[in-house]
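Annual report, structural modelling task.

Input specification for the adenosine-5'-diphosphate complex:
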Amino acid sequence: MELHGLLDKLKLDYLGAQLDAVCEQAAKRDLDYRAFLTEALHVEYRGRRHKGIETRLKQARLPVGQTLESFDFSYQPSIDKKVVMELASLAFVERGHNAVLLGPPGVGKTHLAVALGLKAVEAGHRALFLTLDELLTRLRRAQSEQRLDKVLQQLTYPKVLILDEMGYLPMSRDEASLFFRLVTRRYERASLIITSNKSFADWGEVLGDRVMATAILDRLLHHATAINIKGESYRLKEKRKAGLMGKSPLKSEPKEAA
Ligand code: ADP
Ligand code: MG
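The model returned the following structure:
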């Protein structure tokens, strides 16, 4: 069998596609056999890794452009960057622990949650981004179509499930109980990253039922890192910069020279 046929049989597609360039480079750099083999296998490895990331990225449905690198920590001093970086190391994902980001609108909760999801995808984990509203719609529909068990099972596959905007809409009793079942399924197996504009003390109200809220919080927070962001909306900063708004009512904005 000739070389291209072998590469094809072995499914070394990326090496196959770049074979001429790889050989040419090896000749130019006068590589020994071992170095050449390493280089050739690297080409295949990089190709597959990239493809894997692309596929998982599509499945994850993360909003684009919200990365850890583009997050301005200096604007939000209440966030301990060390804690975020520890989360970004993804040790919590390996352990199936959770992360909860709390704070008022616009302070970067979603941005950080998405940025962590992206790190997870890049590291080879499956992730999925849903607003809490989307999640509840899915679960309600599944229940009415007698597919709840299957859908709950599907929602345990992603190693990282990001649930955005807990607390904007109160849940009915049934919804809280569906949410409870999801949290129980994933408990100690796969991570949840939840963002909320409500403090834990107010979750009872959001979940419509204090007993249910306690049961949910119990599992959610057993192994969890909570980041409580106290600060000003980044959206307001951008509007103010564009001259669309007056001075901040909060005193956190540094005084500008006249
Ligand atoms: P929240 O989810 O807390 O309401 P978002 O994460 O949606 O807020 O942030 C609002 C917008 O501001 C987004 O476009 C986000 O990328 C941006 N943003 C928020 N905080 C920062 C920050 N510290 N550095 C850079 N961009 C930020
Ligand atoms: Mg948000």
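Confidence is low (pLDDT under 50) at residues 248-258.
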